[in-house]
Design goal:
Low-confidence stretches: 108-126
Strand content: 5-15%
Number of strands: 2
Number of helices: 4
Shape: globular
Structural class: mainly alpha
Radius of gyration: 16 Å
Helix content: 40-55%
Strand order of the largest sheet: 1-2
Protein name: HD domain-containing protein
Organism: Prevotella pectinovora
Largest sheet: 2 strands, antiparallel
Number of domains: 1
Distance between the termini: 26 Å
Length: about 130
């Protein structure tokens, strides 16, 4: 089972990697992720990483895969490309914050009653 200690380790790694990009505004992004539950959110309700902390774990797993692929490519501007990969990978599912509510030690299984769209962002109603 994925523990609170695992969640915190994953959070620390993601923060270190994103801070390492030194991109303008990255501290605002990190604050948003922290304040809105990115590190505790599940990645899905039934499938991959459907547990407390699963979204961050999934994003970190995608990062490791993307990093492996990047190492195999020949790049002209390595720094920009690598930074862009880091930012893209960690934010590719940021819209899933609050999508699959769950508690530590519980999977977020639920029945979707309706789906509405608010300002371009999907909202699930239970």
């Amino acid at each position: 089972m994925y523990s609170l200690e695992d969640v915190n380790k994953c959070r620390d790694v993601i923060i270190r990697i994103l801070r390492g990009t030194q991109r303008e505004g990255i501290e605002n992004v990190l604050a948003y992720m922290d304040e809105n539950g990115f590190y505790s959110a599940a990645a899905s309700c039934k499938f991959h990483n459907n547990f407390y902390g699963g979204l961050a774990k999934h994003s970190l797993e995608v990062f490791w895969e993307a990093d492996e692929l990047w190492l195999k490519l020949e790049n002209n501007d390595e720094k920009i490309i690598q930074e862009s990969i880091k930012i893209t990978v960690f934010l590719h599912d940021i819209c899933k914050i609050d999508a699959y509510p769950c508690e530590l030690g519980h999977n977020p299984y639920f029945t979707i009653k309706s789906i509405s769209n608010t300002m371009g962002r999907s909202r699930l109603t239970f």
